[in-house]
């Protein structure tokens, strides 16, 4: 369990704490704290990848758990934002469905001894989703017309990039899902 993998596990640990601050309305500044937790958790994604590459400590555990930690964090935030009527449910469903589909693809590949690492499109997708979610979270505490517009723009971009990255994973890894195997 190297430092990069510990940061990935920290991100997973922060998800329920984020959810508590999002769900419990009686906590003073709860949404602001949730936003900070989300930002910190998101930064660990960049940091763990940098540490793993710079120290040549890339592991199969990290290749599997890092994207899973991202999915948990993004899914928790999207479900919370749907509940609060900040994000449309269809937006969340498209993003979450893609995450399940790519996770399924990774599972099939893993059963064949292959590890599908994050692609360039997948990394861009994660960044756009995180920016969209942070904008939406800020919109909870500091409602402003500009934040409304930015939330809509970033969420639309997140949906588009999410679809493109999902198609990219399946096209590049089509050998893992051949039906005649």
Automatic annotation (TrEMBL):
Enzyme class label: transferase
Subcellular location: Cell membrane
Listed InterPro entries: CDP-alcohol_PTase-I (IPR050324), CDP-OH_P_trans (IPR000462), CDP-OH_PTrfase_TM_dom (IPR043130), CDP_ALCOHOL_P_TRANSF_CS (IPR048254), Phosphatidylglycerol_P_synth (IPR004570)
UniProt xrefs under Gene3D superfamilies: 1.20.120.1760
UniProt-listed PROSITE patterns: CDP_ALCOHOL_P_TRANSF
UniProt-recorded Gene Ontology molecular function terms: CDP-diacylglycerol-glycerol-3-phosphate 3-phosphatidyltransferase activity
One GO biological process term: phosphatidylglycerol biosynthetic process
Origin: domain of life: Bacteria
Keyword set, alphabetical order: Cell membrane, Lipid biosynthesis, Lipid metabolism, Membrane, Phospholipid biosynthesis, Phospholipid metabolism, Transferase, Transmembrane, Transmembrane helix
Catalyzed reactions per annotation: a CDP-1,2-diacyl-sn-glycerol + sn-glycerol 3-phosphate = a 1,2-diacyl-sn-glycero-3-phospho-(1'-sn-glycero-3'-phosphate) + CMP + H(+)
Regions crossing the membrane: 7-24, 72-96, 127-147, 153-171
Listed pathway(s): Lipid metabolism; Phospholipid metabolism; phosphatidylglycerol biosynthesis; phosphatidylglycerol from CDP-diacylglycerol: step 1/2
One Pfam match: CDP-OH_P_transf
Family from the record: Belongs to the CDP-alcohol phosphatidyltransferase class-I family.
Protein name as annotated: CDP-diacylglycerol--glycerol-3-phosphate 3-phosphatidyltransferase
């Amino acid at each position: 369990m190297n430092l990069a993998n510990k940061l990935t596990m920290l991100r997973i640990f922060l998800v329920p704490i984020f959810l508590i601050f999002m769900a419990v309305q009686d906590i003073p500044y709860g949404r602001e704290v949730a936003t900070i937790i989300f930002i910190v958790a998101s930064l660990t994604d960049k940091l763990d990848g940098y540490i793993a590459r710079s120290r040549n400590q890339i592991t199969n555990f990290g290749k599997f758990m890092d994207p899973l930690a991202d999915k948990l964090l993004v899914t928790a935030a999207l479900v919370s934002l749907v509940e609060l009527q900040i994000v449309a449910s269809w937006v969340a469903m498209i993003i979450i469905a893609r995450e399940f589909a790519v996770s399924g693809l990774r599972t099939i590949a893993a059963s064949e001894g292959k590890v599908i690492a994050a692609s360039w499109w997948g990394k861009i997708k994660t960044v756009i989703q995180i920016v969209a979610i942070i904008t939406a979270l800020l919109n909870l505490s500091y409602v402003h017309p500009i934040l409304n517009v930015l939330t809509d723009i970033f969420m639309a971009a997140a949906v588009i990039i999410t679809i493109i990255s999902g198609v990219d994973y399946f096209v590049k890894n089509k050998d893992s899902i051949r039906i005649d195997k």
